[in-house]
Specification:
By secondary structure, the protein is mostly helical. The protein has 2 domains: 1-139, no CATH class; 140-251, no CATH class. 68% of the residues lie in helices and 2% in strands. It contains 10 helices and 2 strands, in the order αααααββααααα. It has helices at 15-18, 21-37, 41-57, 66-86, 90-95, 112-138, 141-150, 155-184, 195-226, 245-268; strands at residues 100-102, 110-111. The chain has a two-stranded antiparallel ribbon with strand order 1-2. Helix 2 runs parallel beside helix 10, helix 3 (41-57) packs parallel to helix 6 and helix 4 (66-86) runs antiparallel to helix 6. 24% of the residues are buried. It is a multi-pass membrane protein. This is Energy-coupling factor transporter transmembrane protein EcfT. InterPro entries: ABC/ECF_trnsptr_transmembrane. It is found in: Membrane. It holds the Pfam family CbiQ.
Length: 277
């Protein structure tokens, strides 16, 4: 069933698994913020290529995250389409030029400037999504919680995040188990069945699964209260990792990307790189 999980921690070896959760979290946050803030295509392409390289180095199989990648592709395409439909001349306004590539459509004539702007939007997903997948797939939930606490987040919130990351794969596993048992009884919920029947059948599975999850949450919260969780202001973490040379290299690399973003802000006199100047 593990291959059917949407996303979650998978044990493995390699450079990405050797880094501490704190350094991976800082790298992900700093690089993602830089990629979202800038519209300099040169930097965005560089970050995107670097993200794809890290994805390859992490040895994550495509089929393990296929659902996330497909969903991201659909969402990114819809986002670009909506931007074009509601503001087809936004790129012309930004770059102060108009080079018509596909004419005869009136207000919706496609320009090179609009295409360049939409390309930047799509490239941003290549910058952030691989990094997010790498972090979630190579970071143990307890290490993730300890990293949040290391950067200043309350350990109560960090522990709640850890429980959520642990519980989501279990819910997915239980859902697939229930669905397979229903299919064994003759209820067709796979792609072979009709769309509406599949939707109704899956919804019928989700509702009891939600109520069962609420019961589990109540049991876990009661157990934590009995153990006096949250009594002290601080706590130690069994899975916490001290920062090593590799971790400092990752953090410094992220800081350099942030500095490059700020320098490009100054050189471009803003967030946008304009090749038509």
């Amino acid at each position: 069933m593990s291959d059917k999980k949407i996303i979650g921690y998978h044990e493995g070896t390699g450079f990405m698994y050797q880094l501490s959760a704190a350094s991976k979290l800082l790298f992900f946050l700093l690089v993602s913020i830089s990629a979202m803030a800038t519209y300099d295509t040169r930097l965005i392409v560089g970050i995107a290529l670097f993200s794809l390289l890290l994805f390859r180095v992490s040895h994550i199989r495509i089929k393990e995250v296929a659902f996330v990648l497909i969903f991201t592709l659909i969402f990114a395409s819809l986002n670009a389409l909506m931007v074009y439909l509601f503001s087809p001349k936004y790129g012309v306004q930004l770059y102060g030029a108009e080079t018509v590539l596909i004419g005869g459509l009136g207000h919706y004539s496609f320009t090179a400037q609009q295409g360049f702007y939409l390309l930047n939007l799509l490239l941003k997903y290549l910058c952030t999504v691989p990094l997010a997948v790498i972090f979630l797939m190579t970071t143990h939930p307890s290490q993730f919680a300890s990293s949040l606490n290391q950067i200043g987040v309350s350990y109560k919130i960090a522990y709640a995040v850890s429980l959520t990351m642990r519980y989501i794969p279990d819910i997915q596993e239980e859902f697939y188990t229930i669905r397979m048992s229903q299919e064994a009884r003759g209820l067709e919920l796979s792609s072979k069945g009709k769309l509406m029947e599949r939707i109704r059948g899956n919804l019928a599975l989700v509702i009891p699964l939600i109520f069962g999850s609420l019961d589990r949450i109540d049991t876990i919260s009661t157990a934590m209260e009995l153990r006096r969780f949250g009594k002290n202001k601080k706590r130690t973490w069994y899975m916490a990792q001290p920062l090593k040379k590799k971790d400092w290299f990752a953090i410094i690399s992220a800081i350099l990307i942030v500095l490059a973003t700020l320098i490009l802000f100054w050189l471009n006199q803003g967030r946008f790189y304009n090749p038509w100047k």
